[in-house]
Amino acid sequence: MPQYREFKKLDLPQIDQEILTFWNKEKIFQKSIEGRSEDQSFVFYEGPPSANGKPGIHHVMARTVKDLFCRYHTMKGQRVERKGGWDTHGLPVELKVEKELGITKDDIGTKISVEQYNLECRKAVMRFKEMWDDLTRKMGYWADLDNPYITFTNDYIESVWSLLKILHSKKLIYKGYTIQPYSPAAGTGLSSHELNMPGAYKDVSDTSAVAQFEVINDEKSAAIFEGNAAGGLYILAWTTTPWTLPSNVALAVGQKINYAKIATYNPYTKEPVNLIIAEDLLSKWFKQDQAEADYESYSSEDKLIPYKMLGNYSGSELEGLRYHQLLPYVQPVDGDAFKVVTGDFVSTSDGTGIVHIAPSFGADDMRIGRQNGLGSLTLVDKQGKFVDEVTDFAGRYVKDYKDEENYRDVNIDISIKLKEENKAFNVQKYKHNYPHCWRTDKPILYYPLDSWFIKASAFRERMVELNNTINWKPTHTGEKRFGNWLENLQDWNLSRSRYWGTPLPLWRTEDGTSEICIGSISELTAEIKKANDILGLTQSVPEDLHKPYIDEVILVSGDGQAMKRESDLIDVWFDSGAMPFAQWHYPKANHEIFKNNFPADFICEGVDQTRGWFYSLHAIGSMVMDSVAFKNVVSTGLVLDKDGVKMSKRLGNVIDPFETLSKYGADPTRWYMMTNAQPWDNLKFDVAGVEEVRRKFFGTLYNTYSFFALYANIDRFSFEQSYIPLKQRPEIDKWIISLLNTLVSNVDRDYADYEPTNAGRAIQSFVEDHLSNWYVRLCRRRFWKGDYNQDKISAYQTLYECLETVSKLMAPIAPFFGDWLYRNLNQASGREKYESVHLALIPNVDEASVDKALEERMDYAQRISSLVLSLRKKESLRVRQPLQKILLPILDQRFKEQVQSVEDLILSEVNIKEIEYITDTAGVIKKRIKPNFKTLGRKLGKDMKAAAQAIEGLTQNEISEIEKSGNYNLSINETNYQLSLEDFEISADEIPGWQVASDGDITVALDITITDILKSEGIARELVNRIQNIRKQNDFDVTDRINVAISDHELVQNAVHSFSEYIKTEVLADHLKLSSEVTGHEVELVEDVTINVLASRV
RNA sequence: AGUCUCGUAGCUCAGCCGGUUAGAGCACUACACUGAUAAUGUAGGGGUCGGCGGUUCAAGUCCGCCCGAGACUACCA
Hints:
By secondary structure, the protein is of the alpha+beta class. The chain contains 36 helices and 38 strands.
């Protein structure tokens, strides 16, 4: 018969190795997929990582979550394919290459050809693939590494194009311009990624100005002009970028904000003026004494400038007012201008409550401009200089972009001009947070740039609707973070002016009248042929669809004009969001596969992907398929260092995943990550925690298995006897099986609900607290004592079943150890046909074996034992010393019956002869009464406090009265309340004359009298213990029989005399004798008494 | 700056519908145990549950404000 494998010690990294080799050799991963039917599929999408950087410990986190649910569903009998993937395009790749080559974006096309550059990117992008694959294997992440999808392949690009074509044909793709961060110093637009680089936002001190915009007196404004004091009527607007003032086309007010009209004098020109400003902000610009000063008697020499209130207007009343252009260099031709509009973003937290609008230089401004049909002015060029039309400032940089010598801030000069022309109300330095270009360290500006867009906003409501059907873990990420984002969804800026990425498949005629979107290579082939024919060219489809080759392709419009490709690339997020389609090269191929694999049942990535991959998947799914792209999504938190600080190379607190895996093994790492905190909370990663998991959980489980293996091998237990019905098993077996089934049911539910932490913790608590620390400890003797009888077989079967079930339940989180344990059991017993736990199924719950009453009484047994042990401890009575009895007050019959049926367990656990149950006769037990707040609170309300006091003051007699009659009449503040037994919590408090210990409603007293016979038995047990130690020291086998000789000391005489048989059985001795001449080990029996013991093998 | 999340013992975390001694593990201290032993048990110290206010008979739990940490978003003028 095969033996259960036995080990010297627990070596988890070694187990990883062994199981990895086994998986490889037997192709377990493939079998786990192929063994499941295709119509039982569970669809998982792998979010593609970028292999141009090394994997970190946080990747182990997300991948553990991914892996465990895929494994779980496999073990539920589903077919779970996991196609790996690589994200290969995009800015991070380009930046890295540029850094390595020591070039900047400007050098591309000059110092290095685009061809060469893209070649470098292509080389760089898979640089760490091997390392990633290695990590994947070592951490036990099952994914198909041999057939990954790769975003830079022609097939992938073709699929992406086909999606764009679908969107294009739905008229969802348009060219427009948006306001984007732009670095005049570097001459390039910046991505939000670049703007989010650390240090990009800096506190800077800028010249800010409050400008006076003079309102035109016309029909519309007549009402506002009414009651004016001397001087013109001006609206005040504040800006930190005076250089945008020449491009001003509107002023925005808040619809619901209240504005005041006041009369005062301009602080620079001293001219009388009427000003409009948000009422709440008056105090920001005017002091109390200015309000109190007399407006009429002001003269220009006075220091104090008075003001007086003239009227109040709401924002809506101001809407539509016209004003004279502030700095009339150029007027817009593409729309209306110089009027007051309303904007929802206007607040009164800063400035004047009125916002100056220059659509070319602000995203909000642009948006509000579009909404109101405003024109725009762009009086600054791409170098950041004023254009010629701005006569007096023409050619001057709006910020110091070039480190010019004697650079003079043009904003100051503009402010001076405004002051002189009675157009400035206030000019001062203002400190604020402003983004800077990470490369040049110069302030960026926001500039209108041409872009291609997807009209995602048209699907806003549908996306929100679909999102509500997605199961998000945690909920708030989906409802709040993602949901809020969708509700404010803007169009998707698709284009990127870069080099290494999927080219936009759009060709346009010079004048923009004709455009074509290419959706496939065959279409491109046809179009090229057409162009060749008409334009007389000899081009062909490029072998590589990237720049620069694709840019060389000229197509032809319906009317015979040449069409050139729009030179932009597409956003990489579109690449990754296209993976449900593109990973199968759909729609060019694999229609059936695609149909079976859309949408995903489950995806998982870090929270940082909420607006990234999660969004791009969702958006494309919604727009193209009118469907969610995934049904369940887990977003994992960040992995921080043990002090809660983000890991970074700079701080040197980065944890190398390979080191952790090889030192502790994959399973403890995974287990720690899943059970220490919910995976969506940030994890403070501390290797000490991994070590603790290894020791406590894996160590305990290993010990339990080792214990089982040791005795099962001796008894040659291999589960060959038929399964003993639970009814015929001892109480404790039924109990652990009941707990086990409860565990299976909970864990199965938790896994199904994407709650790995609860699942792991439940398994851990079962193994540590119940299986090892209670079941095995109490049952030890059943395994090593006596014949191979029904009781023993029952013990083996029970323990085996627990271990086997645990191996299955833990396998999703700890795939190596789970499989190792399963195989160790199964190979010896041959109980199941599966060669790996990952091919097995999560066991079914046997509802019939769950016995809550049994679980309750075992809980009593544990608590009572614990109380007795603590009493022993207080009295310094070691457990080996038997004691006669414990006293247990009983409050109701059920409790007594429950305890009685576990009495034996308690007695042997705490080494006591009997339990004396004491009922409440003659007031032996003193009781304590407490109100049951839950039931009483509802009844009594305000009287609760007084009632609690009254109840706690009840006498022993009154308490017994309540117990007997079952009700009590309580009168509080002249109100009578009829209370019943359930409104009280009565428990035993003390037994006068005895030492007691209590835990909740259980109270125990211990009889500490030691009779002679008890004392002898105690000594006998001490002897057994010493002899066992000697056996062990001598390296006897646990089954060896021995002869024993003991010094003839008076202390041991009685013990040996009365308990000879007991001692002999315990230590497997054939003979036991007392002798005056013993040459064995010298051992201390009790304090100050030393005897000699000789144990020799028969 | 906004949105979201979090704040419970020295550390990592539980704490369900609000209900009265606020728990567990680690660490620390002491004492036991030792046919599972690179384990284990018992006991002990350690908390104004981030702060303030509110709702309620009752708040760690619900509400508001503030402080602190983090993530995401951001030209708020």
